[in-house]
Amino acid sequence: MLHDAASGGWAEALERGHIVHFPECPLPLPGADDQQFLRAGLSPHLRSKNVSFYPDAGKLTGLQAPAPVLARAHRILETHSARVREFLQRGMPDFTRGWTPGTSSFRPIEEQGRGLSAHASNELIHVDAGAYGATHGDRILRFFVNLNPSRERVWISKGPFDELFRRHGEEAGVRTGGLEPALPERAVSGALALVKRALPMARVIDSSPYDRRMRRFHNWMKDTPSFQAPPHQRFSFAPYSAWMVLTDGVSHACIAGQHALVDTFLVPLRNCRLPAPWHLLSGAA
What we know:
Layout: E1 2-4, H1 10-15, E2 19-22, H2 32-41, E3 51-54, E4 59-61, H3 67-91, E5 100-107, E6 139-146, E7 153-157, H4 161-172, H5 183-195, H6 209-223, H7 225-228, E8 233-237, E9 242-246, E10 253-256, E11 260-267, H8 277-282
Parallel strand pairs: 1-2
Antiparallel strand pairs: 2-9, 3-4, 3-5, 5-11, 6-9, 6-11, 7-8, 7-10
Helix pairs in contact: 2-3
């Protein structure tokens, strides 16, 4: 499932359910002092599992800290967010046209053995759905950097969405067809779209038939021991490597690793040239 970034064709590889892999991060990273600050300086001030910067609103969440700590974390993540956006827009201009930048986050906590509830755990294989509010079929693109200087970040996968839907959709109770929202729901989504820039967390209120169906499949994957059991594919990402993937279209779990930068974007469905989860769930594929 790994696609060597040096071979090009990133957008097509992403749509085909591959992980585009950069053995070395292709863009400048925070300086050594700033990296050490992220890895060691934020721990006493964490309020949640991630420290996240929202570029549209210019807001930082996840910390309860003195003003200098907040200002430094804000600067580091804001700079990294801008670098990732510029890099991906330059490398995939058609695919990223009209996209919505989401959070630029630092993940400071070791993933292995966190003991979270099943639906919150990154250690259980899943496709992304619902954590960012309603996507209405738009694709969830994420760009990762392993900022750990000495340890790999380890993923496992059971393959792309289309294979899993054909194999497990009926068992999971995920039906096909009927994804158009009713008029009241469209009105609510339209109103929320107007306030998301100022209030980023308003996105979690939004919903749609597509997003509810994706969430059902996500929860079934995490709740089903037979699905979580091997065989699966395993990927180890070296220190300072990077990778990107459409996480709504590729099943994944992070079973080990600490200290990662993760940038999230919503890519318009209209930019896709190949069948996406929306097409499969609607019966249009």
